[in-house]
Design goal:
The chain has about 325 residues and is of the alpha/beta class. It has 13 helices and 11 strands. The protein binds L-homoserine.
């Protein structure tokens, strides 16, 4: 049975994956009959005193050439070399799981087709909505639905900022600094506050929900930087809140996709989604509304979503043995 994995990128999310897989090892083993073994951690930085310090490597080739590594976890962020490492891992017959929405939105189609050619998986549950299970439910539980719309709060940093500004009168810069300190924001938080991160996420979710490729570059996108303190107070006075809403919906003219700040009132399901929480509302023609909510960013929540993909990818790598041993 192949249980070895490699984590590429040992920042917030990479460390979250390590935490989930080690803290919950017993539960994972009981449920699945096996548990992932972290064989390598690729990062250029030093992590003195880290319990997995002895697994640190700096050369991706070591991972690529090790036939025992069945799954590569790409939590590096950024497009390059994350894309190249992903493609090389897939071509080397390893499944890749990722939280990297930039790579999924830009190269997802290409990487999925390389994965298919290589007979492995490319999974990206953690790329949208942090710890919220949404991609797997769209792929499986909701696969018989005709989806009419999918909308949501898809960025934890901006939701945290908007909540802190409205509820605690915290200035924008301070709220952003807090979101950065908590590990919610991107390395360059422009992607969060200008809506680019939410834009990539809705392009990914829309593509899955509607079974057609949505190019994130075509999505009209506005972030939260034009919202003034006066705007926020005006909303508060009227019992409303600003929320950054990403939406993809079927219209008679085709699929319409957008990201923009909206004022929501108490009757909106997004009204009580506060802080780092994200939420996604899916409307299917048979099931009606389905609402998903949870922490949209952060080490443990995102690590949890990545880890679920690791288990799916390992189960796939060992499917013949698992079938004969009736595990999972
Ligand atoms: N910067 C992202 C956010 C991280 O704040 O939602 C999770 O994708």
């Amino acid at each position: 049975m192949k249980t070895q994995i490699a984590i590429c990128g040992y920042g917030t999310v990479g460390q979250g994956v390590r935490r989930v897989l080690t803290e919950n090892r017993k539960e994972i083993e009981e449920r699945c009959g096996f548990s992932p073994e972290i064989a390598y951690i690729l990062d250029l930085r030093d992590f003195r005193g880290d319990p997995f310090e002895d697994r640190l490597v700096r050369d991706f080739t070591e991972i690529e050439n090790d036939p025992d590594v069945a799954v590569v976890v790409e939590t590096m962020g950024g497009l390059h070399p994350a894309f190249e490492f992903t493609a090389r891992a897939l071509r080397a017959g390893k499944s890749v799981v990722t939280s990297n929405k930039a790579v999924v939105a830009e190269y997802g189609r290409e990487l999925l087709s390389i994965a298919e050619e290589s007979g492995v998986l490319y999974l990206f549950e953690a790329s949208c909505g942090g710890g919220i299970p949404i991609i797997r439910p769209l792929r499986t539980s909701l696969c018989t639905e005709r989806i009419d719309s999918i909308s949501g709060i898809l960025n934890g940093t901006t939701n945290y900022i908007l909540t802190r500004m409205a509820e605690e009168m915290v200035p924008y810069e301070q709220a952003l600094a807090e979101a950065q300190a908590k590990g919610y924001a991107e390395k360059d938080p422009t992607a969060d506050v200008e809506g680019y991160d939410a834009c990539r996420k809705i392009a990914i979710l829309g593509s899955i929900a509607f079974g057609t490729y949505i190019d994130y570059r075509t999505v009209p996108t506005e972030g939260i930087t034009k919202i003034t303190v006066e705007d926020i107070w005006d909303a508060v006075r009227k019992g409303e809140k600003y929320r950054l809403i990403a939406e993809a919906k079927q219209t008679p003219e085709g699929i319409s996709v957008s990201v923009a700040p909206r004022r929501v009132s108490e009757s909106s399901p997004f009204y009580s989604v506060n802080g780092v929480f994200n939420a996604i509302l899916v409307h299917g023609n048979m099931v009606g509304d389905v609402f998903f909510a949870g922490q949209g960013a952060g080490m443990d929540a995102t690590g949890s979503a990545v880890s679920s993909d690791v288990l799916e990818a390992l189960a796939y790598a060992n499917r013949n043995e698992i079938r004969s041993e009736k595990k999972c």
